[in-house]
Design a protein that fits this description.
Largest sheet: 6 strands, mixed
CATH topology: tt1808, chain A
CATH architecture: Alpha-Beta Complex
Strand content: 15-25%
Oligomer: single chain
Number of strands: 10
Shape: globular
Number of helices: 6
Helix content: 25-40%
CATH class: Alpha Beta
Structural class: alpha+beta
Distance between the termini: 49 Å
Length: 186
Amino acid sequence: MSTTLQRVRFTTAEYTRMASILAGRRTELIDGEIIEMAPIGTAHLLVVTRLQQAFGRLNDERRLLVQQPLIVDQFHEPQPDLVVLREPLARRKPRVEDCLVVIEVSDSTYATDVAIKLPAYLMAGAPAVWIVNISTHADPVVEVWTAGMSQPTLTRDVVSGAGVTVLLDAVFDGLSEIPDQEEMSG
């Protein structure tokens, strides 16, 4: 008798009910699987913080989320680095249709962000997705994706979205001095 292993895909509702079991762990739900998130490196931390500052007005309006859950569909609840909402945060977890821009800062996660998260965001109706590719710290770039595009618009100077213009020189300042494969200590 042979047995076939069957994977169990969790829904976003089931994932939410597991919160107490997962407490203290940085996880996200990707295609029904619970994935432990990579540690945040120095370059990633700096870029997310600088982008949050650039979107300051939207933060004041409660329309900016930083590393918070986003329901994409029944089997995806990632934690994008930044999300710009159309309206101030309501009394429920935000959904892709609530977003103007979804932003992933990609260092060690670039392949996964482009192959798995990006298509999920776009298929669920995200108007724009920015992949801030810092996998090579000396040559960072923002990939701007919108529905129907087979290739992104690449920018290293200025990126605009949700009524905000971001000067990338300030966001990427000093990244080249941080080793690409920084050693995690602590």
